[in-house]
Fold Large ribosomal subunit protein uL23m.
Amino acid sequence: MSTRWYPLYQRGNPQLRVFLPNFWMKVIKPKEEIPPNMVHFHVSNEMTEYDVRNYLTKIYKLPVVAVRVEMKNGETVKTQQGDIIKEDDYKEAHVTMEKGFKFSFPEIDTRPGYDIFKKSSEQTKKTMDDLEKKYRYRPGLPTWFEQ
C-alpha cells in the first residue's frame, strides 16, 4: 500500500522506482515480564498480521515465528474545563521470534551519575542570560511589554 505518486512511464525512460510502504512500527517496552524471544510493537492501524510478518522478515530479516495483532482503545480523559477528550485507538503487535533469538532493550544510562539533561539545562540557562543582557534596554518598547 502506497499513496506516493510516481511519474508516468515514457518510452526510453529508465524505471528507477522504489516502492516503500506507508507503514510504521515502534518497539514498546511491555509492563509485564515476557520471554526474551518476544517483542511488542505499536503498529499502523492499517497493518495486518501478514503485513507485520512481511515487514520484519523482508526488510529487517528477523526470524519471525508467530504474530498476534490486537486493537487497543485510546484513553478517555476529562479536562478541567469539563471537556471529554479521547486519545486515538492504536494497534499492538506481539511478535514471537525463533527459540534462540534474544531481544533486549539498550541501556541508555550506563554511566553512574550521568544526567542527560544537565548539559542542556546549563546551556539553556547561559543562552537565556545572554539574551537578557542583550535585550535589557530596548528603546521604543512599551514598559507593559517587558516581563
Summary: The helical segments are 49-59, 116-134. The mean pLDDT is 81. The longest strand covers residues 64-72. Residues 116-134 form the longest helix (19 residues).
